[in-house]
Amino acid sequence: MHGKNRLSRSESPAKIGIVHFGPGAFFRAFSAIYTDDVLQEHGGDWGIAAVSLKSPTTRDQLAEQDNLYTAVELAESGKKERVVRSISSVFVAPEDPGAIVDLLSVDNVKLVTLTITEKGYCHSPATGDLNGDHEDIIHDLKNLSEPKSAIGFLVAGLARRWRAGQAPFTIVSCDNLPSNGQVLRKLVLQFAKLVDKELAKWIDRNAKFPSTMVDRITPATTAQDVEELENSTGFYDPACVVHEPFRQWVIEDDFVAERPAWEMAGAQFVTSVDAHELMKLRCLNGTHSSLAYLGYLAGYVTIAEVSNNSSFAAFCLGLWRDEILPTLPQPEGEDLNAYCKGLLARYQNAAIRHKTWQIAMDGSQKLPQRILGTISDNLANGIVPKGLCLAVAAWIRYVGGIDEQGKEIDVRDPLAFTLKQLLDAAGSAQEKVQSILEVSEIFDSRLANNPVFLRELVDAYQRIEALGVEATIEAHINA
Ligand code: CS2
């Protein structure tokens, strides 16, 4: 890409105070911007060292532009671009894992933040326990000076600080998991116990794992986004991100030491985020995944397309009203009905091309906290949540790997192979559903053994097979 105009910095980047794992689009469109807002307003030693656990792509792209990049806000009324300056350096962990452990032991590093997606936690989503069979976990327990997983790095960094008599850092999970701080604490402690029981005790007493609720719709950047940005600003920026105008960050106020004044940028600090998190995971991510599987099968490419279809919009409104909202506690300061109305408008924003295929990824890691918990709560209240069961049936149909036109689906999921094998080996709809319910990483035993759930799921699967998704949705909303 010779001769292209790239962003460049005249000031020196801020001193590193935050190590961030997972420098993907969501991080660059979200927490990096909150930190950038704080740095622009107040300065401070809150520069971010972004660590990629796998690929060098983002590092290589950012290296050509002094670690600056453009965030493009997409509203139906038009675009707004801004240059984000909060990333001070980028590391690629596999190139030199020891350097990351060194970085984690720097005194000025007060925070470690993570956007590593659900599967990055190397746990069983159904139980929240560390997956001891995960190859990275097995590797890291044997080679803690050169870890591969985020959990391995966190424990290696904390171990170094413990031995040196330093204070620990605060670890802030920014992934879509319920009580994400608690989940991460449990995983770190389970891993640390296998390394050294005294270390685990020290972490338990001294480290902090605030839970957070994070929200901003950020579709994967496309070549077209990069091209349009270059046409409008004159800068070639392959690391640019595109995102919706909305953002919300609710953070449990529980830190070891100082932190950036993210509240200046609109973050909400609260004593417990659980109710906010449940609202967001069940209302947003639950319907996002439902629309993704049903929409993909019915031939819709983006969430905007499927949610602008009046039947799917009615389906979605019905999910909130009848199946999701009745299961939620009231989060402080939120109007749940207005929240869901706002969600539909966000989905319908046609400036955002968020692919159903992208959201459909990693369903095995997402379904428990997005949909299955809501189903369990309904069943416990004696209600059969027919709409959400349709969504789960669509997911089963989706991971079967063939769409309604008979075309192959590129299923991306750590359990894709297992799921497909189970489905291929089963004959009837009943057998297929039953074999999937036996996957204990996804379905807890109570739900898996619930006869009402099984019956409803088989019925939903059969309806989708017989009528197709579109007619099934139509019948559902008119029932
Ligand atoms: C989406 C989320 O890809 C997905 O699974 O549901 O990334 C969603 O866009 C964000 O959580 C919105 O905050």
β-strand amount: 5-15%
Strand order of the largest sheet: 5-2-1-6-7
List of distinct ligands in this structure: D-mannonic acid
In the predicted model, the low-confidence regions spanning at least 5 consecutive residues are none
Report how far the terminal alpha carbons are from each other: 57 Å
**DSSP summary: helix tally:** 21
The backbone outline, from C-alpha atoms, is: globular
Average of per-residue pLDDT values: 97
Give the total of domains. 2
- Give the tally of β-strands: 11
From the 3D structure, determine the CATH topology of the largest domain.
Rossmann fold
**What is the C-level CATH assignment of the largest domain?**
Alpha Beta
Over all CA atoms, what is the radius of gyration? Answer: 22 Å
CATH architecture annotation name of the largest domain: 3-Layer(aba) Sandwich
Biggest sheet details: 5 strands, parallel
CATH superfamily of the largest domain: NAD(P)-binding Rossmann-like Domain
Question: Could you estimate the helical fraction of the residues in percent?
Answer: 40-55%
Structural class: alpha/beta
Topology:
Layout: E1 16-21, H1 25-29, H2 31-42, E2 47-52, H3 57-63, E3 69-75, E4 78-84, E5 87-92, H4 97-104, E6 111-114, H5 135-142, H6 150-163, E7 170-173, H7 180-195, H8 197-206, E8 212-215, H9 223-233, E9 241-243, E10 248-252, E11 268-270, H10 274-297, H11 303-307, H12 310-324, H13 336-348, H14 356-360, H15 363-380, H16 386-399, H17 416-425, H18 429-437, H19 445-448, H20 451-467, H21 469-478
Parallel strand pairs: 1-2, 1-6, 2-5, 3-9, 6-7, 10-11
Antiparallel strand pairs: 3-4, 8-10
Helix pairs in contact: 4-6, 6-7, 7-8, 10-12, 10-15, 10-16, 12-13, 12-21, 15-16, 16-20, 17-18, 18-20, 20-21
The protein binds D-mannonic acid.
